[in-house]
Structure formats: structure tokens, C-alpha cells
Amino acid sequence: MAIKIFIDQGHNPTGFHNSGAEGNGLFEQDITYNVGKYLESILKNDPRFEVKVSRPNSTTVLGTNNSTSLSARVSEANSWPADYFLSIHVNANTNPNINGTECYVYSESSQSYYLATSILNSIVSELKTKNNEVRIRPSLYVLRKTNMSAVLIELAYITNYADSLKLKNDQYKFASAIYQGLLDYLKLS
Ligand SMILES: [Zn+2]
Q1: What is the 37 CA–ligand 1 centroid distance (Å)?
Q2: pTM of this prediction?
Q3: Rounded Cα distance, 103 and 115, in Å
């Protein structure tokens, strides 16, 4: 039985509700869309996995406001049902010096926590981003409402110049690092 991975590319296209952060000429929603599509293509080439994405096309718009945009992603994953939910995001801060990768999970005593640790370590080692650790965020809707192990991945900071270059130029590398982290967690190779 294939392992079912739901990839949630955070946010909606520019100009719609629930669009993401901006910085250094980049838009979060474009980066999350591309990294999710790369990860989808990698997983489609591995028969051990089945994969669905929240935004199959660059024009896909989910929900009619911020809250239904999030609930649409969660209900799709829950009704499939997915085995793992990976939400891809890009971070931002008013301080341009803040940089690095972090992952959010609902609770520390969970498989999600170990999966997040594995993905985080893989990204940090492949992309040479700063390790900002796995953080506990029970308030996040997509972590609270998903019925399966769920990790929200903040790839890097769009508002930090060095991170933004990686987000712009190394999108495939982010996807393959997430894939490697998933394999490490599942003890596959
Ligand atoms: Zn985001």
C-alpha cells in the first residue's frame, strides 16, 4: 500500500485572499507553489507514494476567504484520507537579519514532531540554512484540524537577502530535501 502524502502549497495566487508574504522581489505563494509541484513530481516517480497537492495549477484559488482557504486544504486531506500532511510556507520578519528554516507541529509528543525534525535537518544540511528548530504551534489551523501527522515547513525567510536567493534559485533543492527528510523519517532510502 502506497503512503499517501498531501502537499499543501501555502496561500493563494497574488491578487486573491490568503496570499502570502513578500520580500526581495519575491512572493511566498509563487515559491510554495513551485516547491510543492517539484515535490509532487519527485513523489510521483516513487511507487511507494501517492501524492496530492492543494494547488494543482498556478491559477488554483482555494476558498472564498482566509478561513475557507485553510479549511478547503484540510478537508481535502482528511477526506482522501492522507497519511501525512506537509504544508509548505516561507517565513517573513520585519527584521531583515532574521533567517533560517523552522518547522511547526501541533505537539511535541507526536510522530509529527519526529517527521518535522527529519525534514528540518535535511533542509538545513542541503540548503545550508540556519536551524531554527521544530516549534510547537497548536493554534495553527492546518495542524489542529488535520487527522493525520502534519508538519508546517517554513523553508526560509523571504525578507532576508541570503535566504531569498535560495528561495529564488534552489526551489528544486528544497523539494528534494523535503523528500529526503521524509525518506529518513520512514526509514526508506
Ligand atoms: Zn505562509
Answers
A1: 16
A2: 0.98
A3: 10
**C-alpha R_g of the chain:** 15
CA of 74 to the centre of ligand 1 (A): 15
CATH number, position 62: 3.40.630.40
Closest CA to 168 of 54, 22, 9: 22
**The pLDDT of residue 189:** 82
3-state secondary structure at position 162:
helix
**Ligand 1 centre and the CA of 43: distance in Å?**
23
Residues 156-189: tens digit of each pLDDT: 999 999 999 999 999 999 999 999 999 999 999 8
Q: In the predicted model, is pLDDT for residue 139 greater than 90?
A: yes
- CA–centroid distance, 11 to ligand 1, in Å, is 6
Query: How many domains does the chain contain in total?
Result: 1
Structural domain including 176 reads 3-186
Per residue in 106-138, pLDDT (tens digit) is 999 999 999 999 999 999 999 999 999 999 999
Q: What is the DSSP string of 42-57?
A: HHHT-TTEEEEES-SS
Find all residues with CB under 8 Å of 180, minimum gap 6, and list them: 122, 126
